[in-house]
Request: fold
Amino acid sequence: MKRLLLSVLIIAVAIASVSCSEKKVEQRKDRSVGGTSEVLFVTQNDDQWNGAMGQAVRDFFEEDQYGLPQPEKNFRVAHINVNALNDMFKKHRNLIIGEIIHDLPNPIIETQTDWQSAPQYAIRIKAKDAETWVKVFDSQKDELKNIFDKNERARFMDFFRPMLNTKVVETLKSVYGISMTVPEGYYVATNKDYCTWLRKEEADKSLGLIIYQLPYKSTDDLSEARLIKVCDSITQKYIPGPSDGSYMTLDKEFVKPVFKVIPDFPAGYAVEMRGQWNTVGDFMGGPYVAYTVVNPEANKLITVYGYIYYPNKAKRDLLRQLETIIWSLKF
Reply:
């Protein structure tokens, strides 16, 4: 099999030239459009959408997100043909454009950040046939998902930033030396022994963030077994359930914790853990996501654990909101 050759073409953004005496004025991009966790796939015709190209994009982005009690897709893939790609659709936040050029010798990838709006990432993949196109897409899809995830967090942060809860922010700064964009609606339910429990209670749902700090001794502290053990000990001690003697714990049998290293976490190297929590001595449960990061200057480990209780309702977008807050963490 011939080795697949990729020619990568980065589209340059044209910037109007100005004289040396003039100030350069940065034009503000329009806000990107599109539903929450939505990818727009643009094809040349319906056959590409209904065939191998569309199937590859749907199979990857519409996988069920791990850890949610009800099946929910990571992303929804919407579709139009290129003749419908008007000014509005060009502003979609997460944009993939497919193109088949039969006499093209090698595939071409064109990418641009904030092409027609912000936040936005647009990628155009050109190939000689559908089989080659799918191979190129498969080589890019994991990085694409990371970028689209980042765009979703940026979208939520645009809403959270003007709603900053200064009281909670100051508490986290004084106790842990961290900054985190926590919006209004959350309140401090517990704050002792370097464990802080932030809660947001509504009539039909509960969201929470648990922040705790421990000494960092070695990389063994970041092992999967250690992270699970520490998390369970914290929730048992500080996060009581609704009935006497009940407490939160991680599900380790039906939806086991899964781990992922996040090298580009804003506060530095981090380990992500996600799955489902439940309640010992009661029947509550739901999804969670947690990030543990090392503060090397203080030799401390900071963990921020976000959870949702929203029985029998969709939770993916709420979990994205918690991720957005946690990803704002900086020392």
